[in-house]
Amino acid sequence: MSAGTTKLDVTVADVVPVNDLVTRFHFRPTAGGLLPTFSGGAHVVVEMREAGRPPRLNPYSLMSSPLDTSEYTISVRRDDVGRGGSLFMHRNVRPGDRMVVSYPVNLFSLDLRAKKHLMIAGGIGITPFVAQTAQLAAEGGNFELHYACRTASLFTYGDLLQERYGKRIHLYHDDRGEKIMLDRLLTSQPLGTHLYVCGPAPMINWVVGRAAELGWPSENVHFEHFSAPQPGLPFDATLAVSGKTIHVGEQQSLLEAIEAAGVDPPYLCRGGVCGQCETNVISYDGKFLHNDHWLSEEEHRSGCKIMPCVSRFEGKSLVLER
Amino acid sequence: MPIEPTIKSRPIYGTLSPQKGTEHLLIADAEGAQAILDLAKSAPEGFFAAAEIVYIPRASGEGHVAALKALKPARFYDGPSIAAALPRLRQTFATAHMGLRVYLAGTEGLIGQAMLAATEAGIDYSSIQTEHRGSLARRVQCVHCKGVTEDVTTQPVTCAHCGLTLFVRDHYSRRLAAFQGVCINAEDRSEQVPVEEVFP
Ligand SMILES: Cc1cc2nc3c(=O)[nH]c(=O)nc-3n(C[C@H](O)[C@H](O)[C@H](O)COP(=O)(O)OP(=O)(O)OC[C@H]3O[C@@H](n4cnc5c(N)ncnc54)[C@H](O)[C@@H]3O)c2cc1C
Ligand code: FES
């Protein structure tokens, strides 16, 4: 177990199919009572245990209202080409099951000094905004959400949000050729607006790039990538501090291989965004495949650091300070 | 003369440089004009066509007005004092949109007060460009009567409101845009403390 990821024993209270791809899970504390408080934008790491294989640990954004901690809810999009975590949730998890989730961690929180909150979501990236809009609505906060999705049948919570917040919700159907008029949107916001974006990487890059170009200070721009470890060629690494040599399989992340060797490095997001798992490289002969959103480009080039939750290595030798 | 950071609340200033933005608001007093003229050397095409300059010449700056106007900003305003320019600034901020970038140059009093108006309008202070030029004179708030004395160049200083002899601390309040002044001879008011010119 790692620093900052104290665990919670929960029981699955309900499993609700939302549409063809998305299913919602409700967790209640197994011991009864209330769950720890959280703020909109937080996620938990869900442990998926299956006999005969190491547990899968996937982060999911909490989408229930932060005002109600009698349960946590998450919505999981089925991913048929991943390593099976989301498929496990869809196929194996039933009401009454006991599961373990981490304490909530927020790497995508609202800046409550904002005069206005402008939110942009793509696809399953809507989940943190469901919680954030509930929080803001309760506080009388000023917000506006622009949400793009492929088709009406996959518009997860589009109707629900429109029902709750009316004109503050703008939906864009890709298959009807509806497009977010991004430049017009970004140049017409009152001073003191904060921008939040969550969705596929190309969408995040587009929004963050246009915002910078149009003079939005980086302090006002917030984003969250739902990144996952990518598969790659297997490689070996030496853990200098613990004196172990590990093998990282094709489908395994470096972090998972370190954990499988009985070493517990810290982590919070397992998605390359929080910075917790940052590891010093002592020596290497080969090339890094950096997939994180934490280290600077300069640090990537330096060969001195790696984020083992998402990044990989190809080459002859890699020695880590772990 | 560079300002050395002493304690945490002491503001640190940089050098103005052109930022990406849809509009630019440049506010300066006295020698601060020179910082705008220096920024102009590296400003991209069209920068001043989307810019407003608010300039308070004070005693030393009249000579800069023509040079600033020659930059052909979309709007140019010069006024007698920071206090007189503030309502106009607040009005500008109230109707402005994201994409407006703010640049402040000149005395600490100008930078501090314009910064306060900007942050009240929701601009994060770290996204505001600042450059100190000219006099080191400070705006000082007396902690006893709360009155503010402008353009303080000496240590100690006599509070313009209650007459106490104040020691000017490096402690700076963003909320007040002023340094703190504390009575230096509270034990014995008749004690005479030598006055030195330390913020020329
Ligand atoms: C902070 C955070 C919050 C998140 N919140 C949510 C949420 O609210 N809802 C949600 O549905 N998801 C969320 N995610 C994503 C989630 O954690 C999982 O990544 C997702 O559910 C897929 O899990 P998986 O195990 O099925 O696939 P993963 O193994 O995680 O794979 C995901 C993607 O990685 C690539 N990939 C992985 N393995 C392979 C392989 N062998 N071959 C080819 N490509 C591969 C593919 O592109 C695949 O689509 C979040 C992620 C982060 C970091
Ligand atoms: S665990 Fe968050 S960056 Fe690796």
Question: Briefly, what is this?
Answer:
With 322 residues, chain A is an alpha/beta fold. Chain A is built from 7 helices and 17 strands. The model of chain B has no long low-confidence stretch (mean pLDDT 91).
What oligomeric state best describes the polypeptide chains here? heterodimer
Low-confidence stretches of chain B: none
Q: Which percent band covers the strand fraction of chain B?
A: 25-35%
Class derived from helix and strand content of chain B? alpha/beta
Q: What hetero molecules are in the model? A: flavin-adenine dinucleotide, FE2/S2 (inorganic) cluster
- Beta fraction of the residues of chain A? 35-45%
| Span between termini of chain B | 10 Å
Largest interface: A-B, 20 and 18 residues
Number of helices, counting only DSSP H or I runs of 4 residues or more of chain B: 4
Q: Ranges of chain A with pLDDT <50 over ≥5 residues?
A: none
Q: How does the major sheet of chain A shape up?
A: 7 strands, antiparallel
**What is the number of helical segments of chain A per DSSP (H or I, 4+ residues)?**
7
User: Outline of chain B, from the CA principal axes?
Assistant: elongated
Q: How far apart, in Å, are the first and last alpha carbons of chain A?
A: 15 Å
Share of helix of chain A, binned: 10-25%
